[in-house]
Design brief:
mainly beta; three-stranded antiparallel beta sheet
Length: 104
């Protein structure tokens, strides 16, 4: 933008002289960076085991865990929690694990 040469300009002008507009507060470079992330979740279920004199197994537990499952954000392919995401950092991996445990 320049008041005489380009009054309809949109982008801020870079100048090597003392530009009066360089020190005016502006929201031009601000973006909405709100996001929602499901970072950690775990589900588990313990099966009831019938009580008996010869029962060796006391309980059986099944579980599933997930980390970094999804992010809802306007910025695609970048981590909204990390400064310089995608420039100097690696992306976060999505991990899903499942298993069971037996208590004797």
């Amino acid at each position: 933008y320049h008041p005489k040469n380009n009054p309809d300009g949109w982008y801020p002008a870079l100048t090597t002289t003392t530009g009066a507009n360089n020190f005016v507060k502006s929201t031009y470079w601000l973006e909405n960076t709100s996001f929602f992330r499901l970072k950690n979740v775990e589900f588990s279920y313990t099966l009831p085991v019938a009580k008996g004199a010869l029962m060796v197994v006391k309980s059986v537990k099944f579980f599933a865990r997930g980390t970094n499952l999804f992010v809802l954000s306007a910025e695609k392919d970048l981590d909204p929690e990390t400064m310089n995401a995608g420039v100097t950092t690696y992306p976060l991996y999505r991990t899903v694990t499942a298993g069971f445990s037996i208590k004797l």
